[in-house]
Amino acid sequence: MKCLIVEDDKLSINILKEMVRRYGTTDCVMSGQQGLEMFLRAHEAKSPYDVIFMDIMMPGIDGLSAVRKIRDNEEMMNITALQRARIIMTTALSDPETVIKALYESDADLYLVKPINQKAISNALRELKLISSSVDTGR
Q1: What is the pLDDT of residues 2-23, one digit of tens each?
Q2: What number is the average pLDDT over the span 40-63?
Q3: Are 34 and 58 spatial neighbours (Cβ–Cβ below 8 Å)?
Q4: CA 6 – CA 20 distance, rounded (Å)
Q5: Do 3 and 47 meet the contact criterion of CB atoms below 8 Å apart?
Q6: Whole-angstrom Cα distance, residue 9 to residue 121?
Q7: Do residues 109 and 87 touch, judged by C-beta distance below 8 A?
Q8: Residue 105: is it exposed, middle or buried by C-beta count within 10 angstroms (0-12/13-18/19+)?
Q9: Are 78 and 43 in contact (CB under 8 A)?
Q10: Which one of 40, 86, 88, 121 counts the least CB within 10 Å of its CB?
Q11: Residue 94 has pLDDT above 90, yes or no
Q12: What DSSP string runs through 14-35?
């Protein structure tokens, strides 16, 4: 599985990268703009990301805007809903308004509230059918 982590905090990147490394390769960037650029480069190289972990609050292009741009690009590339990258929004915010924006306005697939643990990552990847139920839950 090919993963992209888009997060503006180095400690959060390192923690998340450690949790997802068992599932495949991982690239990390620190802004929504860089995340969008990596998404486009991966498609140009015919090696798209399977999953993108996107922080909501970042300077410049925030996570919600970056996800909308990714989804717009997927639509322009005629990528079907089954083929598109699975996007998991990550944030410390758990209020209903933020959850609604993340899932419905930006068209993310899932939403995880920080601090994120290994079990939450495994469950999310399993729910998105990116890993099988036999894969370690990280308990």
Answers
A1: 999 999 999 999 999 999 999 9
A2: 94
A3: no
A4: 13
A5: no
A6: 18
A7: yes
A8: exposed
A9: no
A10: 40
A11: no
A12: HHHHHHHGGGSEEEEESSHHHH
Q: Which CATH superfamily is domain 2-127 in?
A: Response regulator (3.40.50.2300)
What pLDDT is attached to residue 47?
Answer: 96
Cα separation, 60 vs 72, whole angstroms:
18
Q: How confident is the model at residue 135 (pLDDT cuts 50, 70, 90)?
A: low
Question: Exposed/middle/buried for 94, CB within 10 Å: 0-12, 13-18, 19+?
Answer: exposed
Main-chain dihedrals φ then ψ at residue 54, nearest 5 degrees: -120, 115
Task: Give Dmax over CA atoms of the chain in angstroms.
Answer: 40
Confidence of residue 136 (pLDDT cuts 50, 70, 90): low
> Across residues 85-108, what is the average pLDDT?
79
Three-class SS state of 71:
helix
Tokens encoding 21 = 């490394």
Does the model's pTM come out above 0.85?
yes
Instruction: Please report how the helices 10-20 and 118-127 are oriented relative to each other, as an axis angle in degrees rounded to 10.
Output: 60
Residue whose C-alpha is closest to residue 38's, from 82, 85, 80: 85
